């Protein structure tokens, strides 16, 4: 259930995100309209509108609202963009993309989280293509994508994902294996040509590789 109290807390969160430098009105509008508390375990409902990451089960976390807003802003979304998301997790980021009228294809390697998202999204009135699988491989059957967003810390930029990006497209990916990752934005300017930009340090759970794949 979404109450006036939740709506009030959300407004405050949006104000905080503005103060922290989020300027994309559509991103702010999406965050203002999505009941983030419905993506958290009941025990954390009272924390849903703090600007913090929280556990969502299977050893994973829902990204901090600022991080979600920042990554989404970097994507320069346009209505109808075909977006590939790696790391569905709680599906909160997925909903932000959907709220901004993107067509979303999202991959998650934890079965529990994949199954939860499959139930939650339609219940909230959203529709996305969800996949249980390895994000390093992307979704070649549905490529190319206008935008690709990776919501886990990647040790390197996966080649398959670069291939599945449209020329003219944008990929946003936190890169690094240590404690923190550097937010990178790639613009694909030719079949094998990319422009890179960096946007500071963030903390993500790791993008796990195939060999550690488990249900
Ligand atoms: N966007 C999510 C972030 C969840 S954290 C949210 O806001 O809730 C990152 C997610 O990436 C985790 O759910 C984790 O299980 C998933 N993940 C890690 N490695 C992956 C891989 N190789 N392929 C797909 N998903 C992966």
UniProtKB/TrEMBL annotation:
Any GO MF annotation of the entry: protein-L-isoaspartate (D-aspartate) O-methyltransferase activity
UniProt entry keywords in alphabetical sequence: Cytoplasm, Methyltransferase, S-adenosyl-L-methionine, Transferase
Highest taxon listed in the record's lineage: Bacteria
SUPFAM superfamilies per UniProt: S-adenosyl-L-methionine-dependent methyltransferases (SSF53335)
Database matches in Pfam families: PCMT
Subcellular location: Cytoplasm
GO cellular component: cytoplasm
A biological process from GO: methylation
Family: Belongs to the methyltransferase superfamily. L-isoaspartyl/D-aspartyl protein methyltransferase family.
Known function: Catalyzes the methyl esterification of L-isoaspartyl residues in peptides and proteins that result from spontaneous decomposition of normal L-aspartyl and L-asparaginyl residues. It plays a role in the repair and/or degradation of damaged proteins.
This protein's name: Protein-L-isoaspartate O-methyltransferase
Lineage of producing organism: Bacteria, Pseudomonadati, Bacteroidota, Flavobacteriia, Flavobacteriales
């Amino acid at each position: 259930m979404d109450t006036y109290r939740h709506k009030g807390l959300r407004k405050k969160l949006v104000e905080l995100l503005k103060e922290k430098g989020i300027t994309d009105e559509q991103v702010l509008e999406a965050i203002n309209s999505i009941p983030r508390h419905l993506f958290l375990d009941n025990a954390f409902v009272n924390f849903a509108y703090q600007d913090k990451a929280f556990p969502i089960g299977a050893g994973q976390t829902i990204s901090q609202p600022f991080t979600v807003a920042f990554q989404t802003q970097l994507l320069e979304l346009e209505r109808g963009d075909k977006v590939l998301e790696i790391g569905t997790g709680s599906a909160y980021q997925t909903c932000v993309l959907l709220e901004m009228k993107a067509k979303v294809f999202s991959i998650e390697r934890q079965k529990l989280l994949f199954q939860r998202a499959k139930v939650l999204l339609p219940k909230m009135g959203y529709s996305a293509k969800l996949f249980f699988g390895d994000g390093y491989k992307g979704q070649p059957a549905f490529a190319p994508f206008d935008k690709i967003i990776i919501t886990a810390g990647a040790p390197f930029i996966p080649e398959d994902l670069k291939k599945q990006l449209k020329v003219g497209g944008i990929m946003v990916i936190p890169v690094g294996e240590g404690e923190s990752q550097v937010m990178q934005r790639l613009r694909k300017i030719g079949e094998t040509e990319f422009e890179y930009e960096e946007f500071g340090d963030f903390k993500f759970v790791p993008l796990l590789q195939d060999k550690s794949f488990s249900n």
